Amino acid sequence: MKIALCSSALLALAMSCAHAAELSPVEQNIVAAIKARSPQALQLLEQSVNINSGTMNHDGVRAVGKLYRQELDQLGFATRWIDMPPAMRRAGHLVGTREGKQGKRLLLLGHLDTVFEKDSPVQLWQRNGDRVRGQGVNDMKGGDVVILEALRALKSAGALDNTTITVMFTGDEESAGEPIATSRADMVAAAKRSDIALAFEGTMRDQDGKDTGTIGRRSSSSWELEVKGKQGHSSTIFTDKAGYGAVYEAARILDGFRQQVIEPDLTFSAGLILGGTDASVDEAGTKGQAAGKTNVIARTALVHGDLRYLTYEQRDRAHAKMRAIVAQNLPGTSASISFRDAYPPMSPTPGNLAVLKVYSQASSDAGLGAIPALPPGQRGAGDIQFVASMVDSLDGLGVTGNGAHSPDEDLEIASIERATIRSALLIHRLTR
């Protein structure tokens, strides 16, 4: 159900919530339950972080899934593990559902995998006062714990009764299995049965240090440039007969991109370049070989790059400009470019903003401050983007930390409680 029908209702809900000056008795019980369990929430996070679950460590991903499945079972969800076809080389996904008849139907998204594979030297868990370092501690096992603890508090207050909630923990968010149509088929199906999607990637702070909500995320896509030149003696380069060679033509194209394909929230990066008499890239597109001599004009050049955009209209403009630049070849050269979409964009919409307003009001009512929207250009790709075109969506509901994907990844321990309170109140207000 697309949100053209739901947005007006959500906007009305956001406005009605704006008049709430304090928490209801049920909401006070929810907050109290969360605060009482803060030590246990940290223990659950430690338990899950201490299981390596790099995307390609399938046993580890399944082990984290088993841990979370036990939690969902205790909360009364009907759970199942979805295996992926063996050829996809991905562990699968955990899904929990409950059915009811009141309020909005919610899809809650987290992921089990991290970027730290089994041989990673990064320490699993290390507490330093009020902060914790570890593999995936904020991206996004901290957010996963927020989901579970928010649902637990709602259940303790009797606020889960008669609600429709689907929880999906994917096993390959950091490197989505291909084909995408298969690896995200169950997520898309769940979105079609939902009204709103909430994702629990880490909470990012704005330039004023305020926690934010994510109403838009840029796509993740790629491009490949292939350039051809005339091989010949280097002493003849730049002549009409010999031309400019493939490397100079590749340089002209890339600089043309830099100067002419600039607009807000659009980025493009050349991540791999090879040139010479011969050049080739491996099947994965991450390694290659090149051969040439200083006295030979380069015959070939290959460039692989990344393109991120906020809307499909922005993508189409970028593609058109890039193709035009590629077509303006230097003498004696030719070039072609191809594009490949991966994660679709999560475009900011009035419906997304309406959900943020409910979230912000809940945070304010709990004494945790208002939540502004994060500028969409500051966020990369995430799972919610596969369903954002179908339902109103909000991301960034997880914990607050630093250094995601790096050896210094950490989180602020107090942010677990803050994020859980906000999320539980948001879920309650959307489903009551």
Give a verbal description of the structure.
The chain is an alpha+beta fold. The chain folds into two domains: 7-217 and 346-431, Zn peptidases (Aminopeptidase); 220-343, Alpha-Beta Plaits (2-Layer Sandwich), CATH 3.30.70.360. Helix content is 35%, strand content 21%. The protein has eleven helices and 16 strands. The strands form four sheets. It has a six-stranded mixed sheet, sandwiched between helices. The chain has a four-stranded antiparallel sheet with strand order 4-5-16-15. It has a four-stranded antiparallel sheet with strand order 9-12-8-13. The longest helix is centred in the middle third of the chain and has 20 residues, at 137-156. The protein is elongated. Mean pLDDT is 94; it is low at 1-5.
State the gist of this model.
This protein is an alpha+beta fold and 432 residues long. The protein is built from eleven helices and 16 strands. The protein has two domains: 7-217 and 346-431, Zn peptidases (Aminopeptidase), CATH 3.40.630.10; 220-343, Alpha-Beta Plaits.
